[in-house]
Write a structure and sequence with these properties.
The protein is mostly helical. It contains six helices and four strands; from the N terminus they run H-E-E-H-H-H-H-H-E-E.
Length: about 200
C-alpha cells in the first residue's frame, strides 16, 4: 500500500518539476504584451520606455514691449522674442549700409570742396584727384556721391523700420500654434434646404 502511495507522489512531483522547467524564465514578472503590426512586433515595455512626447510651448511675448525695445535699440526686439538667428541679418544690414554711407559721404565732401575750389571760392582748394577735372566733371562726381549717400541713408532707415515691424509681428505670433498637430476637417452641411461645405480647424 505504502509503496504505491510513494510511487504516486514521486510521479506527481516529477511532473510538476518538468512543467516548471519548461516555463519561460520571465513569465512571472516580465511578461510582455505584444502587438503585431505587419512584419513588426511592438512590445508593451518598448512603447512604455519611450514615454509621452513633451510639447515645447513658447512663452507669449508682449508686442508693446517688443516695439519699444526695437525702437530703442535695433535688434533688441529680436532678442526679446528669442529670435537670435535674426541678429546677424539686422546688424549685417546696418553695417553694410553704414559703410556705404560713410564712404560716399567722404567722397561727396571731397568732390564738393574741390568744386568750390575750382570756382575760386575762398577757403577751398581742389583735391589732387580732381586736379585735371573741369568744374562740370567735378559737379558730376559730387552729385553721384551725394545720390549714393542718400540711398544709404534710405537703406538704413528701411532696415530700422523693418526690424521694428519684425519684432512686433513676431511678438503677436508668439502664441500662434505652429505644431504638427494642426489639422482641419471638411464637412458637408445642410441648413434650411441650403447645401454647403464647412471647414473646421
Amino acid at each position: 500500500m505504502l509503496p504505491g502511495i510513494f510511487l504516486c507522489l514521486a510521479t506527481a512531483f516529477m511532473a510538476q518539476a518538468q512543467r516548471t522547467g519548461n516555463m519561460p524564465a520571465d513569465s512571472s514578472n516580465t511578461r510582455k504584451d505584444t502587438v503585431k503590426t505587419g512584419n513588426m512586433v511592438i512590445t508593451a515595455d518598448t512603447v512604455a520606455a519611450k514615454g509621452p512626447k513633451i510639447k515645447k510651448i513658447r512663452p507669449p511675448r508682449d508686442p508693446v514691449k517688443a516695439t519699444w525695445m526695437a525702437v530703442g535699440l535695433p535688434g533688441l526686439g529680436q532678442i526679446y522674442n528669442r529670435r537670435y538667428w535674426k541678429l546677424p541679418i539686422v546688424y549685417g544690414a546696418f553695417a553694410g549700409a553704414s559703410y556705404f554711407l560713410a564712404t560716399n559721404q567722404i567722397n561727396f565732401a571731397r568732390a564738393r570742396n574741390s568744386y568750390r575750389g575750382k570756382i575760386l571760392i575762398p577757403g577751398y582748394t581742389v583735391h589732387p584727384d580732381y586736379a585735371n577735372y573741369s568744374k562740370e566733371q567735378i559737379a558730376t562726381e559730387r552729385d553721384y556721391y551725394r545720390r549714393n549717400r542718400d540711398i544709404a541713408i534710405g537703406v538704413m532707415a528701411g532696415v530700422y523700420l523693418l526690424q521694428i515691424v519684425d519684432a512686433v509681428v513676431d511678438a503677436h505670433l508668439s502664441t500662434f500654434d505652429v505644431s504638427n498637430d494642426l489639422s482641419f476637417q471638411v464637412r458637408p452641411y445642410t441648413s434650411y434646404g441650403n447645401v454647403g461645405v464647412q471647414l473646421r480647424f
